[in-house]
Protein 1
Amino acid sequence: MDSDAELVRRLRAGDEHAFTGLVERYHQPMLQLAASFVPNLAVAEEVVQDTWLAVLRGLDGFEGRSSLKTWLFRILVNRARTTGTKEQRSVPVADPEPAVDPSRFDGSGGWAEPPEHWIEAAEGRVEAGKLAHRVRAWIDDLPARQREVVLLRDVEGMSSEDVCTVLSLTEGNQRVLLHRGRSRLRQLFEDEFREVR
Amino acid sequence: MRIFAFMNRDLACRQAVELVTDYLEGTLSRAARRRFEAHLSGCPHCTEYLAQMRETIKLTGQLTPEDLTPQMRAEFTDLYRRWRSEQQ
């Protein structure tokens, strides 16, 4: 697979396949991210279309100081934000959501119902595509701000610094959101594989 | 003295699970990190929990975008060509 830098080089040289290559790589995550900011999927699709046009128009000005990915998601989020937010985007730290259901601990805070083993059962299942659909749905069901951070950090593999830039978050808030999102996903993996034990 | 006693106090599992992300992100202070690791060394359940959080991150990172439909591919090729023709 060509690197982003290679696709940008080819795109600047006027190669239309380089464009569809970029779309292939980023359209879905962009759509997922946009959906988090706007009222419905149709609006999200418009925002993403607009973003692709802005990317084409801005390509000559893209200096490669940030990665293409960061640049792209930044354009997207800025557009999605100006298009309109769909819900009260609460301050994340105001919401004391525990990583693990408190009923799983005893009075002294030790595990009463310890984590069940599932790692071996899950290994390779996402890569093989069997679980991918489920995991994608779990991420879509996360509260918007957790979803945004998990998508960029863990699905797209961006650095915390870049994620903070794209989403205008402080490092601390980003970590809180990441922690809640990951904790929720861990629980869903546990639930998923508990049933097939 | 009292602070010292606090630092040495054992973490409860319920507290330890809340530190996992800070631990993985490398943002715990050295003292907090030692305390967390000391807890893990005596707690197989929290060790398992940490391994599961790592696995969760790994599995999430294995998601890849679904292929574009032929129709979408055609639409984006079209978008590109329209943009190109505007350039000329």
Note: The two ends of chain A are 37 Å apart (CA to CA).
Protein 2
Amino acid sequence: MGKIIGKVIATEKNPSTIDEFYFWTNPKLIINPFDVIKVDHVNNSVSYGIIEEISHITDTANFLTDYISNDFGQVDAVENTYRIGMNYVKAKIIGNTVNIYIPLLNNEKVKLASAQEISAALGLANMKNPVLCGYLEMYNGSDEEDRITLPVNMDSRFLIGPEGAHLNISGISGLAAKTSYSMFLLKSIQDKCLNKEIESDDDIAFVLFNVKGKDLLAIDEANGFDSEEEKQETYKLYDMLGMSKKPFQNVKYYYPFSGKDVLNTYLDKQSLEDQQKLKKALLYKYEYEDDKDNLDLMFASLDDPTQSMDSIINYIISGQGSFGGLTNWDDFLDEVNKRCKAGAQGDKEITVASWRKFYRIIKKSIYRNPIFGTMHDNNNEIRINDALKKIKKNEVHVIDIAKLNEDMQGFVFGDAVRTIYDLQLGQYNSDDENYTPPSKIVIFIDELNKYASTDAPKSSPILRQILDIAERGRSLGIILFSAEQFKSAIHNRVTGNCSTHAYGRTNAIEIAKKDYSFIPPVYKTMMTRLKQGEYIIQNPVFRSLLNIKFPKPVYKQFK
Amino acid sequence: MEKIAQETKGKSFRTFKYSFDGIGVPSFDYDDHKDITWEQIGESVTQKKAVDLTEEAKQIAQIQPLFSYFLDGSRRVFKVDDIAYKNQVFPVVAGQIGIGCCSRIDKNMRQLKFNRRLAIALPKIASQDDWNTKQFFNSLLKKVNTDEGLRKRSIEFTDILPYSYKKDEDEKLENKAIAVIQDLMIEKEKEMVAYLASQNLLSQDKYLLKDGSLEYRVIDMKNARELRSFKNNYRWVVGASKSFNPENCKDHTGKNNSNLIADLKSFHRTPVSMYSSPRIGNMKFAVWYVRIRNKKHTNNAFDGILKLEKILVLDDEIENGIDTEEVNLITANIINERNPVCYGADFRWANHLYPVYVTETYVKSQYISNTLFLNLF
């Protein structure tokens, strides 16, 4: 039946409309924004609403009245009668059982809904191709028996294609737990794939970038947890959600190649060696002959209005001058250096000044950088391009770029994304005839603002690559899971193409931006105080924004 | 209206309908009445001057307040038509009466009982049977209530009242009609008090606070027994009037003491006077005034002053006046009712007591809307 908590009010100033209605409740009843309530409607139908705002009023006419009510400002004045007061709640209509959307009638009883009703109301029931994206907690303030916990599934076709693709997660560092949430989603997808619950022709591989510390460098190891209690609590949630408690599987790690003494990663030497022994860690390098084509990626953050850098890169890639015969980076730098000298020979179109600028930039990245070197015949080294060309379904590839400088991070990211893009376009002829690339590759990148911010140069090859993926990835099977602090800083062609948005805790300046204008004011302020592990998500299959939670990760956490 | 005209063989004019409450500047309508005889000092300990109750009010602020029930009656009267009998035009007046009683439990107001009456006042001449006026109007009422429109809205008139008139009288006929409706309201107020008393809800620590004066006409009371039971109902009832006629403020010697009242200091009360009135039979009343708001915050000399009344019930009281301690206790409790105020919502805020205000608001909220009511005719 549902507990009755109030009645609909429709007044001249605040009428019930097709979209929303108001109801009153006892001022001491605890309900929260995002709670779903139900109201009987005409033709024996039931309408569902989601709470947007709660206000408390009394019959105090104005501020002065209350001042006078305290004996003209005596703070210790006591009243003999409490003022008449009530709470009124603004709720948004999210559905009706028989699709009747005329406004709700005055004085109808407002009730709490059951778990089944809530899931039907929010569009969560009978979800096809379900992928778990968290769980809802409702009526948190009510009595124990009224509370409801409900797993929330998304239709995978709307998360990873073909109907809708790409996920964007925003939220401030630390408090929002962006990485944890994306890992939770990825794990949920991998769980489904391993259990073959997703359509048979859907095989998915994952490419993740580790951008800070050791966050993603042990995702196939179990979480130690601080206490047994925490572990049991977390496992209980995973059981409730029907997810496996195992960490990620089939994981490979790629670290930037480094000298013996100083590692180019935040992972400690011992762990790295252990991973290498288990054959799940490799060191990546860039070879001149194969990787010179990607030199443009080094100039991603540079404005190049005269396109002089562009023409130099073209000059080199096409092997003009003596660039065709070079075999290593050292020679390459020498060759470029030669062009920087006054009166040097070469293409008349390119000025010496431009060559000098080019030299300056690439020298900064390449000179004495161990990543740029020749591959040696041992099993520890690999080119990112080679690794990703052979990516298989259910594999997780983690590329560590945390310790690289910003330009190099862009270079590695750009190279990987370009490889995946070309792979899905069918540009590569595999040595192995039986190899078919996975139908979908999910890329996860944190700090997207570095590569696709609103003020990135238009000519940036990385931005172009990301835009390509955002706009065409859905049909090619390249799915971008991206995260950043402030969504408003991201190029709107990227965010505009994301079918799913997750909003973690953010700050007041951010929610004042235009990007958030469609969100009701109360939800906006809620965004500024969301707890860790709480998200507001938006997806076309949900009838409303949802406030969801997700459990702590089951993979190893570095403190 | 047609039905009434037809049954009473009068001629309806379908004149403009309007409410008596909203037109013109409200004339001074004091809650109390005239013709009062001031008799003597009305309390057991003779007070020469105003009594300061600031300390007592502070002391009892921590304990359960004395007043647990609040009663308010109100009416809304409309002129709904003119009707002609024997070439004379009479107004037809209709009114809604609401009597509401609220209780206070743990500082929260709850509704206890509500009584709504819908009444029509017709001139006595409308009756077709001079000797059985009552029966005639009763059967008329039944006929009126068979109306389809009323049934559809599930509205039922409860009373049709005759108002009498004399030729060559100065008073307007409208006022006579309003008076019978007013009398009905008072009658129903009395019934409400009787109900509370019969349910044993009132006691020495659960007083009823009634809005307005307690001076009822007791014309209907035929015998002493009825009068006694009426008086007993009022053992634990205090009437508080927001407005009163300063001309009627007299001390026990009969001299006007409105100056003394206007000069009352905050939280002071006047000595109690006792009086009786021919209109109220041989009942005796104790009356005193209290100032509940500081004079500097009010814009009128009598703002913030309440007139309190209590019917004297016990023989001892009638003989020697009301017990001073009881007066002080009641007054201190009234002083403590000063907060919260309805400032901003009601211009009489300085004289209003919040629980009474809430009761009044509750009663008003139960009315049928004016438009709907007028269109019943």
Note: Chain A has three domains: 4-113, 153-284+378-549, 288-366.
